[in-house]
Amino acid sequence: MHAQEATTELGLANRRIILGVTGGIAAYKSAELIRRLKDLGADVRAVMTPAAQEFITPLTLQALSGNPVHTTLLDTEAEAAMGHIELARWGDLILVAPASADFLARLAHGHGNDLLSTLCLAARCPLAVAPAMNQAMWAAASNQANMDLLQARGVHVFGPAAGEQACGDIGPGRMLEATELAQCTANLFPHRILTGTRVTITAGPTREAIDPVRYISNHSSGKMGFAIAEAARDAGAQVTLISGPVHLPTPDRVKRIDVISALDMHQASMDALTQTDIFIATAAVADFRVENSHNQKIKKQDNSGPGMTLTLVENPDIVAAVAQHEPKPFTVGFAAETRDVENYARQKIERKNLDMIVANDVSRQDIGFNSDQNAVTVIWKSGQQLMALASKTQIARDLVTLISEHYKNTR
To answer: Is 167 a catalytic residue?
Structure first.
């Protein structure tokens, strides 16, 4: 089975969902809902009203979401004690499930007397509610007027379902089941070209120690790899970024693994392959390492004669090892050359069993290492495409689009 065949369709990959939980017996379903949202790739933070905490504990939702549960309007641990503003900026969607009749009434009339209602007022992201109440309450004229008002304002309403209720009545008012709510949530977001795809990217240089204070390395800044990580994230992918030593901030919503040496990067890459559909090797990995690096700083007087000899041994070829792995991910290499760029790149495709290679001429002064611009030739076995001089951000976006097209043709 190929890695891509095992991929779950992660319709909420990289999405941040704020789950509001209000008071009602259906609050027990919010625990399962968190699991289903996370199954679709979402990062979930729960906000509970005081009444909700009478039905289910914050500790339960914290354990399932992996994030602290928010219950207090004025959080002294939050920045400037304005937790609702921070949360409002964080979320891509607020989903209130269950949404009680009381909360829906307060929401419709703009109340802000607890954390959840204030959060809804402060947020600029979409808002969805999953009503849950007795069938008579659902049918009440005042409740229906509130629902009409919310929908007129653009609030998405999921449900309710009809059936037997906790009180014994039968009729509309039951909260939808967790699986259905999770899918309704995913349907609010547009499908992107790499939605549900897991992408691993290597970036930056590696450092091969001579002694504790000296090392062999290169001029790679990591900028191209980090730009590709951002572009893949924006395309909907779950991104793991394996980075050598660079001075770049971690892109938002990207999992970063820091490494130092080529052996470190090789191990991290191999470990990631069970969760990888596309592997993009932008890192400038040192070809050789010192055979026996010293545990202590080498002093001049430690050497006889005017010079010092270092014995180098070959490092593992990471991208070739990835391309030989079974199941094999769609594997993209990079070729940073100073001459005969296209010829060397085509040789690497064949020799290393790559699906695609991105070649650039690092001898040029206007592109390559440490530059914010690049120009590359993307080569595959049956063709190639030139990407003219542009920002690394734009090159990264164009690369991700091209890689996605070729990847989908292999599925």
So the answer is: yes
